Amino acid sequence: xxxxxxxxxxxxxxxxxxxxxxxxxxxxxxxxxxxxxxxxxxxxxxxxxxxxxxxxxxxxxxxxxxxxxxxxxxxxxxxxxxxxxxxxxxxxxxxxxxxxxxxxxxxxxxxxxxxxxxxxxxxxxxxxxxxxxxxxxxxxxxxxxxxxxxxxxxxxxxxxxxxxxxxxxxxxxxxxxxxxxxxxxxxxxxxxxxxxxxxxxxxxxxxxxxxxxxxxxxxxxxxxxxxxxxxxxx
Length: 234
Prior knowledge:
The chain is α/β, with parallel strands linked by helices. The chain contains eleven helices and ten strands. It has two domains: 154 residues, P-loop containing nucleotide triphosphate hydrolases (Rossmann fold, 3-Layer(aba) Sandwich), CATH 3.40.50; 66 residues, no CATH class. The strands form two sheets. It has a six-stranded mixed sheet with strand order 6-7-8-3-9-10, with helices on both faces. Strands 2-1-4-5 form a four-stranded antiparallel sheet, covered by helices on one side. Strand 4 and strand 5 form a beta hairpin.
């Protein structure tokens, strides 16, 4: 569904991504793991159209999207749940969700999407009139996922969805990601919790200093000695 080939990204003279290539097959969860500063968020931002690569290509369902403006990328069916949730804090829960359905592909089905989001997250329905900035971190993460779903995506990119959340909430968020995948959504997961992300992913890539240094199935990398020593402390 998504293919990245030989992607280079620079911030000024500093290279953030160095010939990064990866594949995200339709219907799978693909994890990107690595230390802070490895380039994981830069990769997500490049795919989303927020950053413009210096070289390389990105294709989605066989169509080139390299350097496409982010609103056009989103309208093709690529959704993003950004690091830090980034809900609109002064808007209500319902208003945040409605913002997610403003892209052309989502407008016709907005009512049905809202019903689906409320069925997935009953707490959001209960608090539809609450100001988003007054919610807990876990509730805001649910809202961020719900807002993304309102855009009717086919692929969702999660950037550190467990960051700053309590362990029980982390488990709930990861269960939700697994459920969305079971419903047919393709997932690209960037997650600091390496063990959990590898357990739920069919395929995974290890990113170090802007380069892909290892790839394989989630199970293979979970039992790889180098991965266990570097990221699992084993």
